[in-house]
Design goal:
6-stranded antiparallel beta barrel; globular; 9-stranded mixed beta sheet; QueA-like
Length: 404
């Protein structure tokens, strides 16, 4: 049964001046709040290698943000912004990015009331060189508030090259500014590799190559997964009860190697870098449940963990999932999750969470409250009083999960 949680109980006052509009010059110069054993302290993120539990397993999300914002004009002159969400034809990200003349994406559109159909023409601005590509967007269909858009272009470039040339970095709307050159590098983790996100997994923005090297030198195993962050991460909760909020679905990929590592973790702590990694790791349990009960894993639904009691152990579920992968000869599991993590959620995998400070009344703040317990408010009060910077370009925290 869906938890009856009032959003008004998970909010706080966030002054505008606390929101970091730009990143610090050096990634790991940010502050980090440490919550462990009901105690709160702080340090610099560059000291993370000394803070992490020795011999732990740290999981990072290697998704890469794409320049998903494209501006077009109608023949009448009206400006339409198109925000690419995910590929439809071809539906596989790498294949779509490799296409050379057309592809279809699910999008949202700004000034959408002015676009009833017909071709849109790319707004080249002052760079006339881009006009040679003759990039166009055609409306195929609408799906609720989303647009199914066919992109066409000339010149023989791949779609990934086209959007790199023509697109803009989709920085969060709460920054209240246009994207700038520095965002191309800084709204991206240093280890980003797999293109597909329209928002950065911001917990990873603080890592440098040097810090990752020191973490590995401390006998901490660093593993990767890939969850493409969707625009739904910015959708505010508008309902009074969280049970009335519809969570967005996101695609992810997890390797058989990581699942084996988690199965054989023993007493080692699992450290999730970011809420995206956490949702993915916790979804693995329910994929295993699907394998036990249905013979194969399916997408994890929003309220699945809350519908009934699950008596399977985490190890049982991972073994069932691994058995299915081995039988189907799959090395990398591709799936989707709509999982929402709110207070009362039972964590099966992650012991430690590294994350930034999130918006009041957001699903991400509810996730933090589930992980930290009723101490979440003390954590945020401490951060506000001790000059921490908030949201995507802000400071970080490391939270050791509370015991129920």
């Amino acid at each position: 049964m869906e938890p009856e949680i009032r959003i008004s109980e998970y909010t706080y006052c966030l002054p505008e001046e606390k929101i970091a509009k730009y990143p610090l010059p050096n990634r790991d110069d940010s502050k980090i709040l440490i919550f462990e054993s009901n105690s709160i302290s702080d340090s610099k993120f560059s000291n993370l290698d000394r803070i992490l539990p020795k011999d732990s397993i740290m999981v990072i999300n290697r998704t890469k943000v794409i320049p998903a914002r494209l501006f077009f004009r109608k023949e009448s002159g009206a400006l339409i912004e198109i925000f690419c969400l995910e590929p439809l034809a071809p539906s596989e990200y790498n294949i779509s990015f490799a296409t050379r003349d057309h592809c279809v994406w699910l999008c949202v559109a700004g000034n959408a009331k002015r676009w009833k159909g017909g071709d849109l023409f790319y707004e080249c601005g002052v760079d006339d060189r881009l006009s040679s590509f003759d990039l166009r967007a055609t409306l195929i269909d609408k799906k609720e508030d989303k647009f199914i858009v066919n992109f066409r272009w000339n010149g023989g470039l791949s779609f990934s090259e086209i959007i790199e040339l023509c697109g803009n970095v989709p920085i969060p709307p709460y920054l209240k500014r246009e994207s700038e050159v520095l965002d191309t590098e800084r709204y991206q983790t240093t280890y980003a590799e797999y293109r597909g996100s329209v928002a950065a997994p911001t917990a990873g923005l603080h890592f440098t190559e040097d810090l990752l090297g020191r973490i590995k030198d401390k006998s901490i195993d660093v593993h990767e997964l890939c969850l493409h962050v969707g625009a739904g991460t910015f959708i505010p909760v508008k309902s009074e009860l969280i049970s009335e909020h519809k969570m967005h679905s996101e695609p992810y990929v997890v390797s058989r190697k990581l699942i084996k590592e988690l199965l054989n973790k023993g007493n080692r702590k699992v450290v999730s870098v970011g809420t995206t990694s956490l949702r993915c790791l916790e979804s693995l349990y329910y994929l295993g449940v699907h394998c036990i009960e249905n013979g194969n894993p399916g997408a994890v639904e929003q309220w699945e963990p809350y519908q009934r009691e699950y008596d399977y152990s985490f190890e049982e579920c991972l073994r069932a999932l691994l058995k299915w992968m081995e039988e189907t000869k799959i090395e990398d599991l591709n799936s989707r999750t709509s999982l929402i993590i709110v207070p009362s959620f039972r964590f099966r995998c992650a012991d430690v969470l590294i994350t930034n400070f999130h918006q009041p009344g957001s699903t991400l703040l509810l996730l933090v409250a589930a992980f930290a317990g009723n101490k979440w408010r003390e954590i945020y009060t401490y951060a506000l009083k001790n000059k921490f910077r908030f949201l995507s370009y802000g400071d970080s925290s490391i939270i050791f999960r509370h015991s129920l």
